[in-house]
Structures are given as C-alpha cells and as structure tokens.
Amino acid sequence: MTTCITGPLRVLVTGGAGFIGSHTCVELVEAGHEVVVVDDLSNGHAVALDRVGEITGTRPVLEVADVTDATALDSIFRRHTIDAVVHFAARKAVGESTEIPLDYFHTNVGGTATLLASARRAGVRRIVFSSSCSIYGSTGADDLDESAPAAPTNPYAWSKLACEQMIEQACRHHDDLRAVSLRYFNPIGAHPSGLLGEEPHGTPRNIVPYLAQVAVGRRERVQVFGGDYVTPDGSAIRDYVHVVDIARGHVTALDHVDDRAGMQLFNLGTGQGTSVLELRAAFAAAAGREIPYVVTDRRLGDVPRLVANIDAVSHAWGWAPKYDVATMCCDSWRFQELNPDGYRR
Ligand SMILES: NC(=O)c1ccc[n+]([C@@H]2O[C@H](COP(=O)([O-])OP(=O)(O)OC[C@H]3O[C@@H](n4cnc5c(N)ncnc54)[C@H](O)[C@@H]3O)[C@@H](O)[C@H]2O)c1
User: Fold this and answer.
1) Contact 87, 100 (CB under 8 A)
2) Catalytic, out of 156, 210, 323, 343
3) Does residue 264 form part of some domain?
4) Which residue range(s) make up the domain with 257?
5) How far apart are the C-alpha atoms of 159 and 198, rounded to whole Å?
C-alpha cells in the first residue's frame, strides 16, 4: 500500500450538492482539501452546501452549471485552478432510466465525455468516478468482486459501464491521466450531525428516504418491489453501506489516484447482504414506529442479490466500512426528525 498524495488539493466535485456529493465535501474539507462544487441543482440543494459549511467551518464554492455544457465547464476550470475532479453528477434512478433512456445517456455518458474533455483542456489529470454495482447485473454470485462480468440490465447501469470504459480508454491513450472508478453498492444513512442527508426532489426513488417519509406520515406505506425472489424472505438482497463510509472512500481514492497508471477500479460496500424487508424492520426499530408496506411486482431491471466483495479495496488502500445497518438507519432517522421538511427550514 503506497500513498502518493499527501498535500491538500483543490478538488472540483460535480454533483456536490447531492446526497453522496455533499457528504464527500465534508470529508474532503475535513481532510484539508479545498472544494469547488459544480451542480445544476436538478436533484441537489444549495442549502446542503451551507450545511457542509456548518459542519466543517468552510462552505464550498458553488458553481451552478450543467456538466453537459462545455462552455460553462471551460469557464469554471479557467476561474479555479483544479488539481483533481470527483465526478458524481448524473441521473441515477434505475426505473426512470427505462422510461427515458436517452436522457440518461445524454447526462451520464455525454456529461462524462464533456467533463473529461474540458478537464483535459485545463490540464487536470486526475479523476475519481462514481460508478455502480448495478453494472454487474444478475450473476447469481454470492459476492461480487471486480472481475465479475459486467451485465447491465437497464439503461442507467449501461450508462455507468459506458463511462467507465470511456475513462479507461482515455487513460490508455493519455499517459498522464490517472483515474479511479468506485462501484458503490447501496449508499444509505446520513451525516451523524443530522445536518446532511438524502433529500431527493419529488417522490423518492430510493428506499431509505421513502421509509423515512412513511415513518413521519408524509406517505402512507412503502412499496417492496418483488416478494418472490429466491431469497430467504422473498425480497431482494442488497449491500447497504453508510454514505459517510462512501465519502471517506473518495478521500482515500484521491490519496491513491497517482499510485498506478490507468484506471483503478474498486467496489465500495460492506460485504453484508440485507433484504429489503430486513431493512424496513431495522428502520422501524430506529424510528420506534411501525412502517406499513405492501409487496408489489418486481421492478424492471432489478436483480435478486447484489453484495460486494471488498477484499481488493481493503488490500490496496486499507479502506473498510465503519458502520452497520442499524447505525445507518439511526442516522437517516435523525436527519428526517431534525429536518421534517427536508432542507427547507
Ligand atoms: N445513491 C445510490 O444508490 C448510488 C449507487 C451507486 C452509484 N451512485 C452514483 O453516485 C452519484 C451520486 O449519487 P447521489 O445518490 O448522490 O445522487 P443525487 O441525485 O443526490 O446527486 C447527484 C447530483 O448531481 C446533480 N446533477 C444531476 N445532473 C447534473 C448535470 N447535468 N449537471 C450538473 N449537476 C447535475 C444533481 O443536482 C445532484 O445534486 C451518481 O453518479 C450515481 O449514479 C449512486
């Protein structure tokens, strides 16, 4: 294990006003880095960056811009001397991607190509990319290491794989480019301060904000998609990982991005599987109240089981998750209780 970068960097965080991005801003600032956020606020909140400021004492600069807009990105790179890019900005809902696949390709694949080109024009040669376990598709393996074959089952997952391949090819042909792709499993939880959490615009498409809104009575009951999978309780099994652990993974990735030529690729998860019904029960325990649910049809593009093997990242960098599912649920619940209307005070 080697650490090449020890000094502070000025980091451009795309999508930094979103769920994982805002938590990563906290960890980056606390590690001594300077942060500039690019976000179009389509699913993010400027207030989240005020909260990053409350937690760390330093509010990141926010540039409101679309990552598919090359002119805007060029201007941002001209105005800030950037050492590295952490690229979160994307559309991320599996179900929605099956309805509007071309929009997903435009933002996720087009945005990544535009960002890579703009970063290159500005002489920035380090990138950390947000990838996803959905790339693995349904392999039937008990745990998935990075050598498991890619088999995306929906346009969102395909877009993430296309981005990884594009970054990998760019590294092959630009000798100085260094990249890390992090395949997150299912990030949930919230900052332990209760100041930052997951607050999607509109109806939540991820399970935990939905559970939280049912728990406070904003919604009647949660839908569990699929009760007939070949799993112990019939619901799908996922590897839930605390968003703060994922955020710490990005600080570690920046420490190690220069370690090797080309693109490094790692899973970030816990290695523990939890069924959707088990997660509902854990959340109900954290909230101290019942959470009504209904089991409905499977969702197009979903797979029965996705659990990470995290040996590679732990051997290479010593990264390991710190938090269990009970803590993830308690932290999410704290955010919901302290922010019943989300980021609107
Ligand atoms: N949350 C998950 O379950 C999960 C799992 C695996 C991978 N990921 C990936 O992690 C990244 C962050 O996810 P998140 O859960 O924080 O989502 P999020 O929606 O909370 O954050 C994404 C941010 O990007 C911004 N954004 C979207 N399109 C943009 C554009 N064209 N230009 C500029 N900004 C734009 C949004 O406003 C938002 O603030 C995404 O790339 C997602 O695919 C998420």
Assistant:
1) no
2) 156
3) yes
4) 10-188+241-270+308-321
5) 23
Between the CA of 92 and the centroid of ligand 1 the distance, in Å, is 6
For ligand 1, atom 34, name the residue with the nearest CA: 39
Closest among 6, 19, 46, 38 to 252, alpha carbons compared: 6
Name, of 26-30, 232-236, 301-305, the range with top average pLDDT: 26-30
> Quick check: is 104 catalytic?
no
The total number of structural domains in the chain stands at: 1
Is 19 touching ligand 1 by the criterion CB < 6 Å? yes
Pairwise CA distance, residues 312 & 107, whole Å: 30
Identify whether 229 is part of a domain: no
Q: Which helix (H) or strand (E) holds 205?
A: none
CA of residue 44 to ligand 1 center, whole Å: 8
| CA dist., res. 100 & res. 86, Å (int) | 26
In a domain, 197, yes or no: no
Q: Could you tell me the pLDDT band of residue 340, with boundaries at 50, 70 and 90?
A: confident
Atom of ligand 1 nearest to the CA of 20: 16
**Index of the ligand 1 atom closest to the CA of residue 17:** 39
Cα-Cα-Cα-Cα torsion 256, 258, 261, 262, nearest 10 degrees, comes to 70
CATH number of the domain that residue 88 is part of: 3.40.50.720
- Contact predicate 247/293, CB 8 Å: no
Give residue-wise pLDDT tens across range 234-276: 999 999 999 999 999 999 999 999 999 999 999 999 999 999 9
Question: Does 117 fall in a domain?
Answer: yes
